[in-house]
Amino acid sequence: MPMVPPDGVNGVPLRVHFWTPHSAWPSTVRQVGCVVPHLRALVEARGWAWQISAGPELPAVPVDWLLCLKAVPPPGRCAVERTVLLVCDDADRVWGKLARFGHVVSVASPALASLIGALHPRVWFVEETESAQTIAQGQQALTGTLPSRREACLVWHGMRGSLDGLLRLRPVLEEFGRESGVELVVVTDRRDGAERWGALRVCWVKWSTESLAATAATARLGLVPARPTLADSHLKSAGRLRCLFALGCPAIGDSRSPDVVEFSRDCGLPSAQTPAEWLVALRELWLDPNRLDELARRGHGLVKERFTAARTASQWLWFLAGGAQSG
Predict the structure, then answer these.
(1) Residue 322 falls in which region: left (phi positive, over 0), alpha (psi -120 to 50) or beta
(2) For the segment 171-217, what is each residue's pLDDT rounded down to a tens digit?
(3) φ, ψ for residue 186 (rounded to 5)?
(4) Which residue, of 109, 184, 212, 253, is most buried by count of CB atoms within 10 Å of its CB?
């Protein structure tokens, strides 16, 4: 999506609702919660009479645009041509019901947008982005303690459904733990605890935006392996990788995702797929503190420049103000 509203837009009154049935999902916070305040500010600055709401309930009155995060609304809530599917992953949830939507917006990877485009005539792509608060937290973390001077700690983050990607790396992490004395912190949706994987101490931290930010600020390096399926590797965005960089923690991503490979290339960062490649990448960065710090700064700068929620809000303004019809 472009970022500048089409020519001749007069800001006619609109009622817009972002429907997010699963409020606890991180994707709800990232794709809607962080973006809507910026969108409202852009509209207010133009003096446009728009009503923009968001939440887990469907609107009680008809709206001009209904944007649905990974969910299919019952018929009649909004004209089909003004009903929009937002999908960042789990496309199988809605795959057979794409005809219920006038537009599909992939808030994920170009690969997923391209795949959906084979089935739907109006597919748009928006980058997954980070909030201003997250980026500010990362800058504070880098200013306070550079990664090379932090404790010998690795971090992984994600929901329990993604843990199979991490568990497949357990032999690699056990070997790296024996070599380096490192500790692994897993930020996920389960209660706090600790265990051992061979010589490696593993600490489980209950997921929240606050716990993730605190952990990333004290970790030396993150890792973001993909899950084994095609949908959860090739089609995934580099969002979880960029999130760690946004928070001031350099990280290694999975080379099965083209989006991860592209972001990693822009950073000068290695990516990995096989166990041997993961071990080489971990050793390479762990033993080069100057490079580790430089990658952290470069990756954080790229996120701040290209992957912000304010940018996404500008794209939504373009879409809702007439771009969807003219594009």
Answers:
(1) left
(2) 999 999 999 999 999 999 999 999 999 999 999 999 999 999 999 99
(3) -110, 115
(4) 253
